[in-house]
Specification:
Layout (H helix, E strand, L loop, with lengths): L4 H16 L5 E4 L8 H13 L4 E7 L4 E7 L6
Parallel strand pairs: 1-3
Antiparallel strand pairs: 2-3
Length: 78
């Protein structure tokens, strides 16, 4: 049996936060949305897992900013 929605959400959240570390300036890109902050991005991630969507993320790091790019499996190109 697979993980529950809550278990998938917690695993994904914890993995993302560990990858971010102590980064302070984070912008989140969500398909079809204007960029949002990390808190709003985490709410979207939570809802996506509970709606049984398969989502993943990638981090794009620049000198002064980190972008979290969320994609659902339909949009994922990587």
């Amino acid at each position: 049996m697979g993980l529950s929605a809550e278990e998938r959400w917690i695993e994904h959240r914890d993995r993302l936060l560990a990858e971010l570390g102590d980064v302070n300036d984070v912008t989140v890109e969500i398909p079809g949305w204007q960029p949002v902050d990390l808190n709003e991005g985490l709410r979207w991630l939570n809802a996506s897992h509970f709606e049984a969507l398969k989502v993943d993320h990638e981090l794009i790091r620049a000198e002064n900013e980190t972008v979290v790019r969320f994609r659902s499996w339909e949009d994922w190109d990587g």
